[in-house]
Design a protein that fits this description.
Blueprint (H helix, E strand, L loop, with lengths): L1 E3 L2 H12 L7 H6 L5 H9 L6 E2 L3 E2 L3 H9 L6 H13 L6 H6 L7 H12 L3 H13 L1 H29 L2 H9 L9 E4 L10 E4 L2 E4 L5 H20 L12 H15 L10 H14 L4 H11 L3
Parallel strand pairs: 1-4, 4-6
Antiparallel strand pairs: 2-3, 5-6
Length: 304
């Protein structure tokens, strides 16, 4: 596990920040003047479609127009993605070379769009408007903003990786679930502009997006927690976990229970303290730290 930076991811969340869609911070105010006022106002008007709040809701277009383009890795991958989606919903067809250039998304494009197209046709006009804005503003970010951001992001990423390696976070998590998980491909993508809004956003099965507005110590603990969620999605795959919002505190609390063990009971911060304490008592009474046994017992006993 390590942290990385990616221009395509940074661009998508940059636009959310400068348009105050889910975020309201100094970063957004610093860079909003680089973009047409009408574009930012339109994104703000359509905010409910492209924002998310952990444990509560996910906008109807969040996966299509935020997660998928943010997961692109090739240079200008997000730009190309928005052009493809615009063409699809404008009935213009898609050039073969464009689709081939999107292979780095690591998903089945045709399956996704064939399953989703009919569901999204009723808001195709909104999709096209958002794509137009994201296409129109890409170059100024790439040519101006990214040159400043990548230096800061690179330095922060270096310090985060040093901390993750020093504390052996991956190895400690694997000790809980071994021999089930011996390797991982979890990627921490660092971005600016996420202060005062949702973070730890899984834009794909193995990519999570984090801001850089906390100390390295706090960031390391936060990343560790989310890595635990990533592993628990696999450990608890044959349980109701992660299938309904009502289990949100149960899974978050379980991850925090293990993370607290990694930090020897001195976790720098708690997000689900009540649930974490419940799991600690439950593990002691059941004399087990088996994730599946604890989760199944918790959904029967824990009223949170």
């Amino acid at each position: 596990m390590k942290s990385i930076i990616n221009k395509e991811t940074s661009y998508v969340f940059h636009m959310l920040s400068v348009s105050k869609c889910g975020y309201d911070n100094d970063y957004g105010r610093k860079y909003e003047s680089y973009h047409p006022v009408r574009d930012l106002a339109k994104l703000k008007e359509l905010e409910k479609f492209i924002t998310v709040k952990g444990g509560e809701y996910s906008g109807a277009l969040y996966y299509l127009l935020v997660c998928l383009p943010a997961s692109m890795k090739n240079n200008e991958g997000a730009l190309l993605y928005y052009k493809v989606v615009k063409d699809l919903f404008s009935y213009q067809g898609v050039e073969k070379n464009r689709l081939e250039a999107l292979e780095d998304a690591r998903i089945d494009w045709f399956q996704f769009f064939s399953e989703s197209l009919n569901n999204y046709m009723s808001i195709s006009g909104i999709i096209i408007k958002i794509c137009d804005i994201m296409i129109r503003n890409y170059n100024v970010y790439s040519d101006v903003v990214w040159k400043e951001s990548r230096v800061l992001l690179n330095n922060y990423s270096r310090d985060v990786n040093f901390s993750l390696n020093r504390l052996k976070i991956s190895e400690k998590w694997h000790s809980f679930f071994r021999p089930t998980f011996l390797q991982d491909k979890f990627e921490v993508i660092l971005c600016q502009g996420l202060e005062n809004g949702p973070e730890a956003i899984d834009i794909s099965q193995n990519q999570d997006v984090f801001g850089i507005d906390r100390s390295i110590e706090m960031q390391t603990a936060f990343i560790s927690h989310e890595y635990g969620i990533y592993l628990l999605k696999r450990v608890l795959a044959d349980t109701p976990a992660f299938t309904e919002m009502k289990y949100y505190k149960h899974t978050e609390g379980l991850a925090e229970f293990y993370n607290n063990k990694i930090y020897y009971g001195k976790l720098p911060f708690y997000m689900q303290k009540e649930a974490c304490d419940f799991y600690t008592e439950l593990a002691n009474s059941m004399e087990t730290t088996d994730a599946k046994k604890l989760f199944l017992a918790a959904i029967e006993k824990m009223d949170i």
